[in-house]
Amino acid sequence: MTLSTDSVAAIAKRGVKTPAYNRNAITTGIVHFGPGAFHRVHQACYFDDILHSDPRWGICEVSLHSAGVRDALAPQVGLYTIAILDQQSSFRVIGSVTEVLVAPQSPSSVLARMISADTRIVSATITEKGYCLNKEGGLDFSHPDIAHDLHQPHTPKTFVGFLARALRMRHDLGREPFNIISCDNLADNGHRLRRAVLEFVRSSDPSLVAWVEKEVPFPCTMVDSITPATDDTLRTRVKEALGVEDLWPVQREFFSQWVIENKLRGPQPDWAAAGVTVTDDVAGFERAKLRLLNGAHSTLAYTGSLAGYETVSSAMSDSALANFVRHMMVEDIRAGLAAPKGLDLDQYIEAVLRRFRNPTIRHLLSQIAWDGSQKLPFRILPTIAENLAAGRSIARLCVPLAAWFHFIRRQVRHERQLMDPLAAQLTELAQKCTGDAASDVAIFLSLEKVFSAELAGNARFRTGLENAYAQLSKVESPATLGEALAAFSA
Ligand code: CS2
């Protein structure tokens, strides 16, 4: 037996929360690109709450690449389980997904949904690389999928291409545009997406530019909830809790936060009742989260992996590493952050560190280590650039970058797959490395897609990296990591 409409009543009797609304009565108000685990534990869960009092906010999911989520959720009529991992874990069946479309199989069905009068929000969790941006923050016109979408706008492949086409169609139908909500870990995510869409439209459909500029809201957002990938332990626990099998359950920590910039137009759900913060100052939240939480995560991922740790909580049980990360957050990252109203940065740092220590979560460092070339420019490099300009220290901030370089070299040396859109280029660079700090750092700094010419040419930055790289070169155990990090103690 698998999870289905028929099994929901029996599941509810076992004490598992299930949708207490009539799923047949809900309409689809959201088209969401990227139905990965994060979206399903986060936004889809908020909308599941909202649907209990407002049926307009069902979600049509759109996969831009694989059919995996559609194939798992179709037999379950969109139902799936979230495990909330805490001292006392709980399980909950989510009912907000009304449909899953696989874009390459049917771009016209995706566009039909996007132009429906019921659709008020188009949102995305497609990760940094899904936006096809260049390092100046504009649209990467050399990206093959963007080139495709410019030539064949009626059958787009990218999120930006779908937005441009759907906006044109809505405009011609005389319909209001939808709100476009990026829910990815990119600084200024709404502004970046707006810029990318406008650059695309300017090049493909110039007469639409003014309408997009004037009428289409692209609020910035901050999203947060730690979401380890689905594993067999989860599948087993969910089966035990539900009494039936779920083909693709997902899991997260108890903590969940969603902050949206106050720019949305048209009919809205009751955001506040669902626990979503709508505010004028999203940038402060977003920056603090990206630089403190995600910056620390990437630091743990690369340094922890070098020492042989597998998970965030095990890396955090290493006092040398945990102290290093804490110092980096308190002394090097916090200095450049302005606290938004309602956020105490000192408390925030301690709360993040507590969340990292959660022993009930098996969050693999290898999962966080993915896509370093896309993540580090948002998580670490802006703090370094600002600290350099302000004359603050960057010694510790060079450690995650140097650890990333060593991590890449080790992956390549052991012929382990590098999960990164720049994998081919990174492999080539790693093969040129000799172990000499000055020349290896110079090799990695030649990565133009990651390091601006200004940063790569900064002598303090180069020296900081060489120092960190040399310190980390012998790390292969907790003991050797402790020795290396001792050089950076306050
Ligand atoms: C993590 C994030 O995988 C990663 O790179 O840093 O997914 C992190 O867990 C989330 O942003 C937390 O909200």
Count of DSSP helices? 23
Radius of gyration: 23 Å
Q: Order of strands side by side in the largest beta sheet?
A: 5-2-1-6-7
Q: How many structural units, i.e. domains? A: 2
What is the architecture of the largest domain at the second tier of CATH?
Answer: 3-Layer(aba) Sandwich
**Average pLDDT level:** 97
- Shape, per Cα inertia axes: globular
CATH class of the largest domain: Alpha Beta
| Portion in strands | 5-15%
What bound compounds does this protein have? D-mannonic acid
Strand-pairing-aware structural class: alpha/beta
**Overall helicity:** 40-55%
Count of strand segments: 11
Largest sheet: 5 strands, parallel
Quote the distance from N terminus to C terminus.
57 Å
CATH topology group of the largest domain = Rossmann fold
Please name the fourth-level CATH homologous superfamily of the largest domain.
Answer: NAD(P)-binding Rossmann-like Domain
Poorly predicted sequence stretches spanning 5 or more consecutive residues = none
